[in-house]
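Sharing a chain and its predicted structure for anyone who wants a worked example. Both blocks are below, sequence first, tokens second.
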Amino acid sequence: MPVERWLKADNTTIRGQIGQPVTTANFRDDVDANGVIAKGDALQVKTDKGKRFP
């Protein structure tokens, strides 16, 4: 099974959706699962770039 890691492209995708409500198409971008894609989600991915995620 491949190891999933946060990549720079993930951060770019999330930053492009800041302020958007969570949908079935973008729910993975809501890192803190609060129902809104926010700057905090992008910052978390930037901080964790290269690390594994569950």
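Comments welcome. Helices lie at 8-15, 39-47.
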